[in-house]
Design brief:
Elements: E1 12-15, H1 16-19, H2 37-47, E2 51-55, H3 56-59, H4 66-83, E3 89-91, H5 110-129, E4 134-138, E5 143-144, H6 152-173, E6 178-182, E7 191-192, H7 197-204, E8 213-215, H8 219-224, H9 229-238, E9 246-247, H10 266-279, E10 285-287, H11 297-323, H12 325-334, H13 350-358, H14 363-368, H15 373-385
Amino acid sequence: MSDYTPRPEHKFTFGLWTVGNIGRDPFGHPVRDPLSPVEIVHLLAEVGAYGVNLHDNDLVPIDATPAERDRIVREFKQALADTGLVVPMATTNLFSDPAFKDGAFTANDPRVRAYALHKTMHAIDLGVELGARVYVFWGGREGVETDAARDPVTAIKRMREAINFLCEYVLDQGYDLKFALEAKPNEPRGDIYTATTGHMLAFIATLDHPEMVGVNPEVAHEHMAGLNFLHNVAQAWEAGKLFHIDLNDQLFGRYDQDYRFGSANPKAAFFLVKFLEDVGYQGSRHFDAHAYRTEDYEGVKDFARGCMRTYLILKEKAARWNADPEIQALLQEINHDDGSMAPFQGTYTAAKAAALKAHSFDRQALGRRGLMYERLDQLTVEVLLGVR
C-alpha cells in the first residue's frame, strides 16, 4: 500500500483560522472551545503539516497592548521552534472589526482607508518577523449591497492606490515579500469588487509594481461563481502570477462551504493536483478549509489529515494517469500532427497569411473526425475509482 504520510517537501499548510475554527455559524453558537495559537501549532505538528499561516489578529488580538503583543509573538515563535513548523504566508484581517463594515481600502470614509493601511503595515511587519515570504490580500468587505453606495471606478482607484502604497512600503523596508490577491464574488458583502482570479490578473497589470503582485486563487471562491477553478489557476500560472493557492472544496452555487479538500468534487480536485504537480508548482499547498461543525478536536485532526491524504492520493493517481499506456496512446492520437499545417503556424508573416488564405480545407472531414473524449474521460474515472 502506498505511503500517504505528509512530509515537509509537500509544503502542506493550514491557517490558524482553519483548524482553530470553533464551529460557529450564522445560525449556531460555537461547538468547540477555542485553542490558543500555540496549541494550534502543536496540533498541526501532530498531524504532519509543514507550516501555519495567519491573519494578524489570529495571533495578536486587535486590542492587545505592545507588551501583550511581544509576549504572544515570543511564545508563538517558541512553538514554531519546538515543532519545526514555518510561517510561509501571512495576511491582515480587514473584515471582522466593525470599523471595516463598509470596506477597508475602498471604504468611503478616508479615516477607515488610512486605518486599513496603518493596520496592514503593522501586520506586514509581523508576517516578515515570523518568516513569511507571501502576503495575501482578501478584500472580504471590499464591496457593496447597493451600487448607490459607491462608484465602482472609484473603488478600483482606491484599491490601486492602497496596493501601490503597500508595495512601496515593502520596498522601502527592504522586505523580501510578494503580494497575492485573493478573489471572491460575494459573501460577506452582497457583491465584492474584483470578483474572480481573472479580474485580479487584469487589475495587477495596472499597478506601479506588477512584478511584486500575483494571485491566491481559492477553490471555493471560484466554484461559488460556477467557474472552472483549474482554468483560472492555469491562467495565473501561465502569466507567472500563481504566488499562492488555497485548497478546499465547494459545491457549485452554494454559500462559502470550505469543505475538506477533494470531498465534494474529486475529479476537479484530481485535475487540479495533476496540474500543480505536472507544472512543478513550488509554493505552499495551503488548505483554507474547516472541519464540519459536528466534530470535536479529534475530528478536526481527522479533517486536517484528510486534506493532506487526499492530495497525496490524487498526486499518486496523477502519476498513474500520466503513465497509463492506453491513456497516453489516446492523447497521442488526439493530438496527432502530420506536419501539414507547419507552414501556417507560428509568428505572422504576410506570405504565411496569404498562403493560409489560399489553402483549401476539407471541412467535412474535419467535422467527421471523432475525438475519443468519452473514452478518455472514462479511463480517467477508472483511474480515480482504482480499477486501473
